[in-house]
Backbone:
């Protein structure tokens, strides 16, 4: 064989290696003739499925918040890579992968252990009824369960199928009809057999998703229990946390109780103390009481970031996420932080109802 022929074969081989994967990716993804309502039901029933894999989250909700809320700002306003082993809602492990190491969450029953690789320390505690969002909440199936809670079947339509992490996934769009929500629509893609959501994009009024989360690789079998177990090395510093975060602290100790509903949204049964969780699904707010001093720092940050005064409340809008701060003098001097995926008018009404309906926690 002459050299020119040998080089021709090399070029052909390289072309096949490069072009065949591109061609495969470009082929139409097989779809299934399932109605939007039936696909919604599959997704809502998928909370019993086990899985493992890699997830990437892209957040565009940069929040200018104080030290108490830094983790939320990082979670919603940046890119996050996670590795997950999920047996069920009571037994899972989620690793947040960092350039210098990782931070792992091990969850068993009511307890969660946080292992910081770089600091070589472990912290354990019982999950409180009210807490701030954490990395595991942005896994596609977990976020989908929250988004699809109480979803109206009349609000869903089918989307074309996509290939997600090597799996053919059926598409669904949820466009909520509740005028109080600030979410325009949510697009989801799920495994046809299990209904497990493999990718989710949430949109406000912009053309780009405000938040997207998707598997980059996934195994749809239930991982073994050893994959989710935490085994502390000998001599590893371990602490037990009585308070998880500022929401948990306020819920336990703030001397105030919020009203039973705000802006027409009923309070969740999980919030019976000082922090109020109102609404469900894509129309939900958290109302958290703050000491006046902490609220003053937060007010300065919100104003610097362009917050507006609306009906006596300080309101900042970051895509579909709204934050309102209102200072109250009843039953004592403090402030309410109200945050959620609702319109500015709903935030203002919620803050007004909190100010009028709060009572002293005896």
Residues:
């Amino acid at each position: 064989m002459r050299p020119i022929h040998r080089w021709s074969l090399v070029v052909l081989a390289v072309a096949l290696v490069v072009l065949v994967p591109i061609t495969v990716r470009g082929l139409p993804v097989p779809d299934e003739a399932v109605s939007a309502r039936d696909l919604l039901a599959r997704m809502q029933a998928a909370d019993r499925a086990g899985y493992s894999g890699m997830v990437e989250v892209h957040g565009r909700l940069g929040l200018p918040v104080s030290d108490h809320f830094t983790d939320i700002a990082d979670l919603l306003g940046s890119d996050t890579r996670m590795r997950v082993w999920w047996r069920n809602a009571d037994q899972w492990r989620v690793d947040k992968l960092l350039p210098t190491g990782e931070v792992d969450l091990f969850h068993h029953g009511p307890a969660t252990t946080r292992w910081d690789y770089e600091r070589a320390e472990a912290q354990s505690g019982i999950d409180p009824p009210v807490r701030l969002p954490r990395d595991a909440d942005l896994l596609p199936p977990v976020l989908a369960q929250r988004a699809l809670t109480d979803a109206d079947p009349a609000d869903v339509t089918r989307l074309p199928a996509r290939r997600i992490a090597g799996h053919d996934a059926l598409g669904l769009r949820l466009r909520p009809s509740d005028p109080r929500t600030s979410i325009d629509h949510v697009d989801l893609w799920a495994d046809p057999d299990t209904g497990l959501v493999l990718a989710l994009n949430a949109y406000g009024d912009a053309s780009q998703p405000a938040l997207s989360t998707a598997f980059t690789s996934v195994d749809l079998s239930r991982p073994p229990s050893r994959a989710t177990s935490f085994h502390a090395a000998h001599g590893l510093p371990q602490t037990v946390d009585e308070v998880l975060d500022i929401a948990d602290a306020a819920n336990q100790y703030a001397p105030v109780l919020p009203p039973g509903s705000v802006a027409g949204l009923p309070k969740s049964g999980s919030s019976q103390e000082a922090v109020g969780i109102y609404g469900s699904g894509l129309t939900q707010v958290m109302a958290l009481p703050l000491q006046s001093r902490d609220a003053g720092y937060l007010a300065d940050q919100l104003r610097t970031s362009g917050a507006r005064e609306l009906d006596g409340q300080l309101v900042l809008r970051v895509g579909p996420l709204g934050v309102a701060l209102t200072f109250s003098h009843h039953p004592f001097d403090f402030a309410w932080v109200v945050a959620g995926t609702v319109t500015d008018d709903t935030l203002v009404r919620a803050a007004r109802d909190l100010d009028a309906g709060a009572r002293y926690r005896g």
